[in-house]
Amino acid sequence: MAKYIIQRTLLMLMTLFVIVLICFVLIRMLPPAPLPVGDPHSDIIEARREAMGYNKPYLVQFGIYLRDIFTKFDFGVSDKLYFGQDVAGIFMEKLPATIVVNLYSIILSIPIGIGFGIIAALKKNTWIDNVISTATMALISVPSFVYAFIIQYFLSYKLGWFPFLIKDGTDWFSWPMFWSMIPCVLSLSLGVIAGFTRTTRAELTEVLTSEFMLLARTKGLTKLQATVRHAFRNCMVVIVPSIFGSFIGILSGSVIIEKIFGVPGVGQLYINAINGQDYPMFMLDTIFYTTIGLAANIVVDISYGFIDPRIRMGSKK
Q1: Staple 296 to which of 11, 174, 237, 249, CB 3.0 to 4.6 Å?
Q2: What residues pair up with 77 in beta bridges, in sequence order?
């Protein structure tokens, strides 16, 4: 298991290195963002560009970029959005908003999604199962930003229950802030709820029809006892890793949603960096989202081995 973890980690770092290198070279092939004449920050940015080797070969520039990151945690200064300011500092200021919104979303999604999946599996081939399964497929098929517009139209415009945008400020855990976040959280949660519902129903349905469940019933256990003691434990082998992956990957799912609802997080910062041609900010966001995506996959794979002792990742036998 340790060998497998090391191999996967090294593979993740190699993949991250290649992706960052490609993005870096493509960005540096573009002309640098024009700087305003007469602004004192322009001289600072010009000096930083010179220090980062803008006139040198791309691989040399990339080496300087990595050196600054590992030795000084320096990702450069903003060219456009926050002119002359350190991009890492701006990023850290925006990160709490993204974490809070996505954390609310995943906390809401897990119990509801698993609950609907359990109901659908226990009521297999009934009208309840058909309704839940149809709704699940519909929710999975629709992008989250479509839900955002629908929720804004009905809950914010027609009914007036919620504001269109989240409340200003940094009081992330206050009631007014939470109330203003509900439309955003719902938009993020619907697809995740459908995913958990589908996974839970599929796994639990398969386990309930297994031979060991029949054996448990013949030993005198009721259907409820056999389901709780045996079926749920076995289907959790698949469900729990997906929960771990969701907790790790929550930060990467709200790029467009943050823009729609005005969440001052890194997702909106990413879009603004692309539209505003702020290349240092774009590179930092790219590294962040790529790392989150790769880490989520590793956590899911590794968690299988810890949850079920029968699974030994990387074993030759």
Answers
A1: 249
A2: 86
Separation CA 13–CA 21 (nearest Å): 12
The angle subtended at Cα 284 by Cα 282 and Cα 289, nearest 5°, is 95
Residue labelled with tokens 């509801």: 112
The CA–CA distances, whole Å, from 94 to 68, 169, 265, 268 equal 22, 12, 4, 9
Q: In b/e form, how buried is each residue of 62-85, taking b as 16+ CB within 10 angstroms?
A: beebeebbeeeebbbbbbbbbbbe
Coil, helix or strand at residue 77: strand
Q: Tell me the C-alpha distance between 44 and 75, whole Å.
A: 15
DSSP letter for 164, please: S
Three-state SS at 263: coil
Rg of the chain, C-alpha, whole Å: 24
pLDDT tens per residue, range 241-296 = 777 667 665 666 577 888 888 888 888 888 888 887 888 888 888 888 888 878 87
